[in-house]
Write a structure and sequence with these properties.
- There is one protein chain.
- By secondary structure, the protein is of the alpha/beta class.
- The chain is about 30% helix and about 25% strand.
- Helix 6 packs parallel to helix 7 and helix 10 packs across helix 11.
- The longest helix has 14 residues.
- It starts with a helix and ends with a strand.
Amino acid sequence: MSIQAVLTDALAKRAAFFEQAKQNNTDCYRVFHGTVEGENGLNIDRYGDAWLIQTFHQTLSDEQLAEISSVLTAHADFHIVYNDRSGSHSRIANTSGNEAQDYAQTEQVIRENGINFTSKLRHEGQDPLLFLDMRIGREYVCDNSKDKTVLNLFSYTCGIGIAAAMGGARKVMNVDFSSFALAAGQKNAELNKVTDVCEFVQSDAFPALRQLAGLPVGGRRNQKLPKYPKLRAMQFDLVFLDPPRFAKSAFGIVDLVNDYQGLFKPAVLATKAGGHIVCCNNVAKVDRQTWYDSLVRCVEKQGRKVTSSQWLDCHPDFPAFDDNHPLKIVVLGID
């Protein structure tokens, strides 16, 4: 099938979803998930009044881009932004015409379930400022944060933290190493008038989490430790743990395939008895049940107990083969 045909089919299948999103005051979502819908490496999203086309394996020809644009503008006449990320390290390599370039580099405001988020489709980083597949996670914390303290780890632009604050959280601590991401998070807090509830901590996750858990801060062998913010030991009602697949620093290695427990153990210790921890793993090859069993064992090794579990599944704008989405999210109740 041609790109036009598979995109037209994807839009038709989402008709009910689009209507529901409109009712929910949501104007950011996926309209084409290429891996599953027939064009591997091509994703198309709506961000407010823009269509964001992204390629991760192969650059679109001018003809292909024109075909895609014609289908999208027939559906809704929004700005077209094409980010070609097929080169090394997934960086945006292409340039656009002046109008598209200017729009892509201008701050916009998008909405998800009535919550405002800042958006800029080209900036100094790689990704858009809101990960759309994490909508279910933001909905969960919004619905389950009233009068609670919330720790948002690897917070990026603090979408989870803002959702928690909008859900009535007493206090939200957002932790991320990137000053750029936290600045966007602060803007999100301002857009929603929740700055008094939100704290923004620029720190490597390892020292922040180990201090909060009451554990000593260490580092990798022969690595000199850089400065880091000092935090007192503290437990939270709700902890959200969404690490990247792999990252290295002087303090440790984030590895979602081989060592999720390195982060999960201190996150458990920073969770109050009777509280909940939301665990995310976005690596497709990690088996869901095997990962879940390892989480339960890790909790039990700390002398704690898993009292409940709830899986959060991505919304239908992110279809998956056999409903087995690469992004796995489970909420564990812990005593």
